[in-house]
Amino acid sequence: xxxxxxxxxxxxxxxxxxxxxxxxxxxxxxxxxxxxxxxxxxxxxxxxxxxxxxxxxxxxxxxxxxxxxxxxxxxxxxxxxxxxxxxxxxxxxxxxxxxxxxxxxxxxxxxxxxxxxxxxxxxxxxxxxxxxxxxxxxxxxxxxxxxxxxxxxxxxxxxxxxxxxxxxxxxxxxxxxxxxxxxxxxxxxxxxxxxxxxxxxxxxxxxxxxxxxxxxxxxxxxxxxxxxxxxxxxxxxxxxxxxxxxxxxxxxxxxxxxxxxxxxxxxxxxxxxxxxx
Length: 277
Known about the structure:
Blueprint: H1 2-9, H2 13-29, H3 33-45, H4 51-73, E1 82-84, H5 89-96, E2 102-105, H6 115-120, E3 125-129, H7 135-145, E4 150-154, H8 157-168, E5 172-175, E6 186-191, E7 194-199, H9 201-209, E8 213-220, E9 226-233, H10 242-257
Parallel strand pairs: 1-9, 2-5, 2-8, 3-4, 3-5
Antiparallel strand pairs: 6-7, 8-9
């Protein structure tokens, strides 16, 4: 697997995205749950969408997957990218200066794989990921995605402790807030009008640390190596009511998705019911 990812990482980003678009469109047309879920989830959020938008959503999902080797394996994946606005990090620097750390929340939207390496250029960062069940695959992902100034924290008690320690050191942490948590680790809240089991970890981390929360995503632009960074600072702390906090987070995610609806990972099983939930 390492060899395959290494070979794919040698592709120019534009080639990787083009190949990903082809594979994504093909996967969505195959019989099975993935293509059906992608269409159902997209139409749940945007019922008046056209078939053209659905096809573009499938292509964007493929681009997202084929960007992984590029951002995981290259020593300096940011060197050839056009990131705008160029001064986006000034906002996060000002928040980090408060000394409470920073919680970055990015859903499965746009080029989210570039955000870890990007923010690690400006601040030591720890990013939460959902580990696979296979120990060898979990260890491989953690090793491939880690780099200087960037640590990977599995969604386990050990990983949560890593996040808390990073915040206490005044560093940045990154979380995919639309990742479906395990039973007992979330609350039901509407997501595009349908109940979705939503993590309460973000609320707990903010309550412990007092860290500010920033919603962020990297919109993939028409130029293959160009991304626009969207940042939104949540002005108020999350509610102490867990369900209200979950609903607020989902609303913020919806607002980000509205900036580029076809770039969301609609094939992700966002509405699944975890055991014990």
